[in-house]
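re the bet — no i am not wrong, look at it urself. input seq straight from the record:
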Amino acid sequence: MTMTMTRWDTAATLSLGDIARLAEVQRPVVSMWRSRSAGTAVPFPAPCAGSDVAGPRFAAADVADWLTATGRGNNADAAREVLLHSDIHLIDGPDREPLQALLSLLALQAQCGELPDDIDDLLDLADQYDPDDDLLYSELTRCEALLPQLLPLAGALSEAAYGSAGAARAVGDRRARTLSAAREPALTETGARVLRALTAALVRRRPGAVVCDATGAASALLPDLDEEVAIGAIGGPTGPVARAARRELVTQGVTWRNDVAPTVTLLGLPSAEAPAATSAALLQAITDHRATCPPETVTLVWGPAAALTDSITRDDRGRTDDDERCDGLRRRLLSSGKVRAIVRLPAGLRLPRSRERLALWCFGPTEEANEPRTVTADLADRAFDEVVLSGLVSDVLAGLDGSRGLRARQLEVCQIRTKSWLGAAKKSLVPPARRSERAHPTVVLLDRYDKAVAALTGSVADPPLVPTVQVRTTPYSPLAATMSQLISERALGYRAGLRMTQAVDTDDGGVPVLDARSGAEPVATLDRFDLNLTYPQLQYTDPGDVVFCTSGRPRAFVDRKGGAVVRHPSRVLRSTDVRLIPASLAAAINAREPGETAWRTWSIPLIDHLTAPSVRSGLAALDDERRRLAVQLAAVADAEQALLDLAAGGAVDIDSPVPVERSSTSTVDRPSTSPMVERRRSRDPGPINHARDVGEPPTVVDRPPTSSLVERPSTLVERRRSRDPDPDSPALHDTDCPTPPRTTSEEI
């Protein structure tokens, strides 16, 4: 298929990435085509003149002809679809009016079918379908001089995409990949899926629902609603964003009406008209919108979590006038009693600010109860699979039903808060995220603990003491809090690492320098006197401080010795709360995925204050055992190397070791003789005794047997390790806690 060149074809170009998307191959494949086809009968097209400044670009017609001639790629319709992936200077320039005129032509074509070739007839047709100039008539009249070029382009795009709707989507996707369009906020695929599910659930529960897109940010959600759902007014009457949203709906075959009152409104913030709006401006926009809504209207709001859920005052700066205004606006909205749901969402749901976390509010009718209830949730660290999404939708619907609905349902991901609690909240409006019991069931963790303890204590004659574990029979809830909350409550101290801009003398016995990127071992040791002279405000670590960094993959470790200097970009965290265990804090940081840098929003598990001392002592015992094993492993490595060196020297004979047999009481039975080494007479010139050196057998130390694991009943799991085999020994009863009776498997 050879393309027929027209006036707009000559300006259509493709980048290497565009060619890869057109041919449905990976980007490196296109570079391979260029290099391997050079010098052949059908070489790859040459780049356009002057295109190497921002990367080579190729004429769309030449690329289509080359793909057709060579049969390369995985898209048999590449020649037909080449225009959908091309950069056409007429519509991709800095002036946006030609693009809006092209989209207006596609919207008009979706309504009436074939477009007339005569420009006057075309404008008359536009006036007929848009008599009030709500979406396309002005765009066409402003670009009347370009319509002779835009009209055939619209027809070619529709033909390549099998319709006006596909052509409009292709043009929109193309613009979304450009820098100018990326400045406008747009939902990602995951963000659209979450809000689409919530919107569909809200309109299903209200027969005869009329949906209104207040800012034009939800145009991608409306075409998927049920056909019986009416689409009300979209945005303001004259705003360009609202007009673009209406054109998108018309192109997708969705009709909208201005003569019906909305029952469900969608408010996406910030709008494309004010993408850099402050938190105060966003809250003011919510206030103004709710003032125009009928009393029974349900409103779904989504926007930056910094304005909707997070603490208004940052920990590292004082309270500003803008903070005071934000606090007043947010308190007035919450005091209305109409906020039914407040949810913090994860990052990556909207472009171009992929690291920005979103949040949503859901407003409902006024509740008759004296103390209205609101469901809240922190899902910032949760993956939005179908289970979490369905739970969120169910909980939001329960919140809209008020106290009656909350009593009838069991919440899955949210918690219940009263209006007075929200009004008194000085920090974040959402409680700490609960850890999922389904992700780490207690039964699985107990089984892991059983196996680890058995492996640790069953193979040595002198097993270490391990903590006792008991399953609670009373209801409980895992505790957690974000780092921002812990820092603001002074439960966690924070200090940035030292920016070492000047050289300091090294000293083997000096101050260790720590960097989380290199692990727990010091990266250098510096002279203490020179270090304090160069950096007078220097602060050293204390034992138990957590050193962490977020560059690359988040990493952390516990500084068990203290007295060290932490180098930037690493940071220091110091626990001042008994519930916050340093090892647990470091483990939570190390569990983060690469690229997660918003460390203040990370959820950190807390240990119950009654259990924390036992956990700390148990961790200390296990740490002592780790150090003992490290010494043994070092000895094993030294013996291994020495044995290899002896064998390589050839001056000794080495006997195979005798297997070690263990008795039922775990007492180690050693062989009567140790492995023997013979010096070969022919290779040993020294006057030595040529008889074999036989070592004396070691003394076998009798140790009391260790007690076995106690069987686990249905309501109590207890594991005890004792060095005294006598159950009547006073050592077992000189404690404040009574010893529970042993339970046999038959009793279970």
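see?? The chain has four domains: 9-182, 186-424, 453-474+635-748, 482-609. told u. also The chain has 24 helices and 26 strands. so pay up
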